[in-house]
Amino acid sequence: VTEHRDPDCVFCKIVAGEIPSERVHEDEQVIAFKDLSPKAPVHVLVVPREHRRDVRELAGDPALLAHTAEVASKVASEQADGDFRLIFNTGANAGQTVFHVHAHVLAGGTLAEGEM
Ligand code: 5GP
Ligand code: ZN
After folding, report:
1. Given Cys at both, which of 69, 76, 85, 100 links 11, Cβ 3.0 to 4.6 Å?
2. Is 116 domain-assigned?
3. Cα–ligand 2 centroid distance for 11 (angstroms)
C-alpha cells in the first residue's frame, strides 16, 4: 500500500521488513512486534500497516481501531495471563516519539501504577 507509506517513518520501514523486528503477530491490517526497550515483562507494539499519525487519525477507521484492540488482547493472552494495559501516546506532549500510530501492550506479572 505504497500511497499510505511515509518514506521517513521507522514503523513503515518495520512494516516493510526493511528494519528487523521480533514479530509476534501479523495479518493484512496490522503487525505486532516486541518493543526495543521493554517497560514491562511483555511489551508489544500493535501497528497498522498503513501509515497513520496517531490514534486521532486511527479513530476515523473504527474497524481498524477495533481490530488493533482485538490483536492487543490476543497478544496479551498468548504472551501473558491475558490482562494488559493498552496505551496510545498521542502527541509530543504525551510522550509520542514515533508518529506512526502504535498501541503499547504492557502485560506480565503485576503492573505498577503509572508504569509507562
Ligand atoms: P512512543 O513514545 O512513540 O509511544 O513509543 C515508541 C516506542 O517505539 C518506544 O517504546 C520505543 O522503544 C519503540 N521503538 C522505537 N524504535 C523502535 C524500533 O526500531 N524497533 C522496535 N522494536 N521498537 C522501537
Ligand atoms: Zn509510518
Report:
1. 100
2. no
3. 5
